[in-house]
Amino acid sequence: MTQTARDIFIVGLRNAHAMEVQARELMERQSERLTDYPEVQSKVKQHLDETNAQLQRLEACLESCGESSSTLKDTTTSIMANTQAMMHSMAGDEILKNTFANNAFENFEIAAYKSLLALCNDAGAPTARAPLEESLKEEQRMAEWIDSHVESITKQYMAREQREVA
Fold it and tell me: Is the pTM higher than 0.85?
């Protein structure tokens, strides 16, 4: 069966919605455990607000196409996120694992939004471009922030560990 650009776009929107559900779950769990890293906690909470707005924008895009999100995909990614957060919380270097994972995840989200933007016009959904571009910019800002803070987060973690040993 040949898929049309619209079909591919709808699947992409549903995938992006599930991806943002996963991101929301991860950030909710992480923000609860970042009290030793207040700058990171603040940034995660800020991006959590952006993620909730991104979910609303994706839902609006789907609705404008006469579609809705996939409950199965959303539930599956939510479970995956909570499992990942639980696994990272058992690690002594949880902050580092979360930083690395968040860096990778932000870049995954960037690629997903770029793909959706490439499909907008062919899918007959030019009005989706502006909200998707807004989400892309938010993801790019967060990815840049994480990338620029890997070193300082690593050093903060090392200092905390060395204080605990002393």
Answer: yes
